[in-house]
Fold this protein.
Amino acid sequence: MFATDTSLQYDIIPYVGTILGGLVPGELVVIHGSVPDDADRFQVDFQCGSSIKPRADVAFHFNPRFKRSGCIVCNTLDKEKWGWEEITYKMPFQKGKSFEIVIMVLKDKFQVTVNEKHLLLYNHRISLERIDTLGIYGKVRIKSIDFISNSLQGSQPSSLGITKINTENGEMPDDSQFGVPYVGRLNSALRPGHTVAIKGEVNKNANSFAINLKSSDSDDIALHLNPRMKTEVFVRNSYLHDSWGEEEKEVANFPFSPGMYFELIIFCDAHQFKVAINGVHTLEYKHRFKQLEKINLLEVTGDVQLLDYKLVLTHPQPVFIYSGFCICLSDLGQCLPSLRSLYNITFHELSKEWNRFW
């Protein structure tokens, strides 16, 4: 079900290690460490081998530099020649502070999050299949490195309490049929304990998009989620009795960026919706539409690609949501301790300990 390396102490830098089985889309590489007070730079390299002479190709070179105001340089080394630098001037790393880097491997790019905040995207310049080595160099202390692979698709939905969301004609579409604007009917009416899990990708030149939970009986929208990329405002509202209500905009950190892949979880409890994005709790929204049992449609509009979505029902056993799937605790086995520490992925308990994660 899951593949995960045991967390180990990496006291010796440079570190060079083989990535068993290579990298596949959907995999997460999670690095915990800290930056020494005297650091000038360090780098994380996804390499094609470990040769020194000639130097192995580097598919993804992630290089925080601390001089002046600081920056992060990303690049690719191909046949001992560096390509063009992609420079990010957001600097989430601080000297003397610990960090968590989560690198999500996607089909066409890497997506990097640092300390729960989206940082950057880096398109593949070298085939993902060639990457077999991880190298870490420079002035940095590494506490642990974890590789988390999602192979949940082989699980039996009937045993996991999963209900798919149908389209209007009752069929589950494949990726090519998730056109936006999109409306899908829920198999079951929404009620406390249910979760809607949505996977998507923000368009590269996105202005805004919206995700709505609504009723087919009227034009009412129980929950309107409207991220606006240009202004970095995350609007929440309800449309009731032919009128919009008061907008809610407060959020600690704007969670979206153009081109970004996301997994969005909407958990419904008796009094409010709770929303997490890429495993980070983002907001709460008190119910204005009280007839929860009438909420039976999901609508997606705007500058976004809808990749997948599920309605997850309550389950009699303690369960977790991982990447949009519902898993019984008994299925996690020995993976549980290390997985529970990786709060940066979509991974929340839906049992008595739910509030620990929110």
About this structure: Residues 1-8, 151-176, 315-358 have pLDDT under 50 and may be disordered. The longest helix spans residues 336-340. The first strand starts at residue 2 and ends at 4.
